[in-house]
Amino acid sequence: MNRTVLASFSILCLLSVSSVLIIDQADAYGTTNFSQTYGGTSTDSAHSMVQTVDGGYALAGISMSFGAGSNDFWLVKTDAGGNHEWNQTYGGTNSYDIGWSVVQTLDGGFAIAGYTRSFGAGSTDFWLVKTDGSGTHVWNKTYGGLGFDIGWSVVQTLDGGYVLAGDTYSFGAGGCDVWLVKTDAEGIHQWNQTYGRTNNDGGFSLVQTLDGGFAIAGSTQFFGAINVDVWLVKTDAEGNYQWNQTYGGTDFDLGRSVVQTVDGGFAIAGYTYSFGAGNSDVWLVKTDESGVIPEFPAWTLFLAVIIFTVSIIIYRRKLFKTTNH
Length: 325
Prior knowledge:
Mean pLDDT is 87; it is low at 1-24. This protein folds into 2 domains: 44-298, Neuraminidase (6 Propeller), CATH 2.120.10.10; 299-325. A 4-stranded antiparallel β-sheet has the order 3-4-5-6. A 4-stranded antiparallel β-sheet has the order 7-8-9-10, with no helix packed on it. It is elongated. With 325 residues, it is mainly beta. It contains 2 helices and 21 strands. The longest helix has 27 residues, at 298-324. It starts with a helix and ends with a helix.
């Protein structure tokens, strides 16, 4: 687990803003194009972003420049031109309070998910922070056991509650398992489910699907090839497992983000060491509604069956004529 924490810290450092460039111009459609930076004298990083209902942006991540501890949740709000409007930090005095995912909520506020070492029951816990439309803290909740529990993604559900996805070492079958936690609109725990086997399995991205269920993308060491594969898990609205699919080769392949596509299927973005031109390449996987990557379109299979059937009929007729002669 220490390696996971160190890896996360390394990513934070790499993602920190290191240049100041401001460009503000309108394109042919009247859209404002710009580049803006936000931060202090230390490492500050954004991990998630949403466009807000007023046309601006909300960025969530971590700040080492501001806040109560070495790393605090950081929420930055801008206008449509990227100009800073306000920012807020959330955290305790510990060194790891890290925000990974943000959504704008139905009431115009924000919900930020990640993990905390300052609060909760264990080494790190899932942490959900709810704010109003100005980023002012409304409430926060932790979810976890005695081990490391790391929240990576959050969605607001159709009933106004929240679902968080991430990794747990506190619960499940062993090692690291995918953990899905459902809350009501006030962050009160309603149910949770784990997915995985005795090896390490992780869930990095979450989407509520058209049928009211959930799809989680991440990685698995058990299902699939020899090393780590991209893993897609589908559940119903109560988090009950429905199906899973793996994608990958013989090397390290990992899914970082998932969306449900307009045709009801799924698209997963991540990276692969098994395929591509370099050491590690960006990998985009498109599936059908069951998580399957068809080798051929369905209509070609149907056409092949028709051609095969007609060929058999013609062959038998020729054989019959030859025999009678």
